[in-house]
Design goal:
By secondary structure, the chain is α+β, with helices and mostly antiparallel strands. It is built from six helices and twelve strands. The protein is globular and about 45 Å long. It starts with 15 loop residues before the first strand and ends with a strand.
Length: about 230
């Protein structure tokens, strides 16, 4: 039987990983090339192991698979084929997939990749009460799929105002850590109102090696959001 691909190890025997979360604004409508080749080239240069997308509008499962393959990800899962879908693509198999739309504004998709539990989410853009219901459903899903280890939840939280902080307080009270704040180079002042986050379970804190927003010529132009990345090793 052929062995499945695993995470590459460096000379110290560590497994290096990189994940990107990106709201691509209406399916990256600003990239009008056939096959989204500008986006694909940028993603190949970033070389992430896992990508979580929000606003994968107008993609089908097949067209997402084709896009993901163009930047070296043979695995992809789309939450739905209407509205504002979330998605996950990966260099490695995505298993135990869950797609949730009911009782949520946009919904989320969840999958396990080499033991890491990944959620790509997009909370309600309108009412903070809806966002609270959204995050409560997500946290309860995590609670019922324990133990609380190797979890990464990320995406567009649409949460910035003081009254809306209760959404993030729920996440922090659950035990998650805002990964960007672990990076010594991160400053909230550099990014204004931040609504895109990568939260990690506490066991991943010691494995964290970096995480921040990606600001370059591409990300300044092609979406109204900036992608956020995280790297870690285990």
């Amino acid at each position: 039987m052929m062995a499945l691909p695993g995470f590459a190890k460096d000379k110290r025997g560590k497994q290096a990983m990189k994940i990107i979360s990106y709201n691509i604004e209406y399916g990256m409508r600003a990239d009008t090339t056939a096959g989204k080749t500008i986006f694909s080239t940028w993603m190949r240069n970033q070389d992430p192991d896992i990508v979580c997308l929000q606003e994968a509008n107008k993609f089908t499962q097949k067209s997402l698979e084709a896009l993901a393959a163009s930047y070296g990800h043979p695995y992809a899962v789309l939450q739905k084929e209407k509205g504002f879908p979330t998605a996950i693509t990966s260099k490695y198999p995505i298993v135990n997939i869950m797609k949730v739309e009911n009782n949520m504004w946009h919904g989320f998709v969840m999958g396990t990749i080499n033991g890491y539990h990944i959620i790509s989410l997009h909370l309600s853009p309108h009412r903070y009460e809806s966002r609270q219901l959204d995050i409560d459903l997500i946290l309860e899903t995590i609670r019922q799929n324990g133990p609380f280890e190797k979890w990464l939840i990320m995406g567009d939280f649409n949460s910035v105002s003081p009254v809306d902080y209760s959404v993030h307080q729920r996440i922090l009270d659950f035990g998650f850590i805002d990964s960007a704040r672990l990076d010594k180079n991160f400053s909230e002042k550099n990014f204004g109102a931040r609504i895109d986050f990568i939260y990690i379970s506490p066991d991943l804190k010691s494995a964290f090696t970096g995480g921040n927003f990606i600001i370059d010529d591409f990300t300044k132009k092609y979406s109204d959001h900036r992608p956020v990345y995280m790297t870690w090793e285990k």
